[in-house]
């Protein structure tokens, strides 16, 4: 379950890299994984959870599946929050898998390298360590 308040890092269980807006502030920019940054970079990597949405601390944009299609191999972006037809923007977490609530078969996935894009793919039953994430609470001031 996502926390009901406060900020957190969404961290890959395999690599320890975190979900990052890559310094981009525009809607439609892709999300990547990067090493956890210092104080000057941390806002790019902080998220909060509200009513099913994962919201960037820096931009107030939400995690979104590109094009609104709930299909495997789609890029994950930050985008303006939709009030309706938000099936590609509402998320859950269970057993380390972050998934769109509308289709729990799809999960966040990435590669091992820093700067790798984040996508949604079908959950694998084996070799799924790059699909598993954990929440690390942010301990600083905000």
TrEMBL record:
Q: Which CDD domains match?
A: beta-trefoil_Ricin_GllA-1
Which Gene3D superfamilies does this one have?
A: 2.80.10.50
- Mention any Pfam family matching this sequence: Ricin_B_lectin
Q: Which residues form the signal peptide?
A: none
- Ricin B lectin domain residues: 5-136
UniProt protein name: Carbohydrate-binding module family 13 protein
């Amino acid at each position: 379950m996502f926390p009901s308040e406060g900020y957190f890092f969404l961290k890959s269980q395999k690599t320890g890299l975190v979900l990052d807006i890559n310094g981009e502030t525009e809607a439609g920019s892709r999300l990547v994984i990067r090493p956890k940054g210092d104080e000057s970079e941390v806002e790019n990597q902080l998220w909060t959870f509200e009513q099913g949405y994962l919201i960037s601390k820096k931009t107030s944009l939400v995690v979104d599946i590109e094009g609104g299609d709930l299909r495997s191999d789609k890029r994950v972006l930050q985008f303006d929050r939709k009030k309706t037809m938000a099936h590609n923007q509402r998320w859950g977490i269970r057993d380390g898998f972050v998934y769109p609530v509308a289709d729990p078969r799809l999960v966040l996935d990435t590669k091992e390298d820093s700067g790798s894009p984040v996508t949604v793919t079908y959950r694998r039953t084996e070799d799924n360590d790059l699909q598993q994430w954990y929440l690390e609470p942010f301990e600083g001031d905000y």
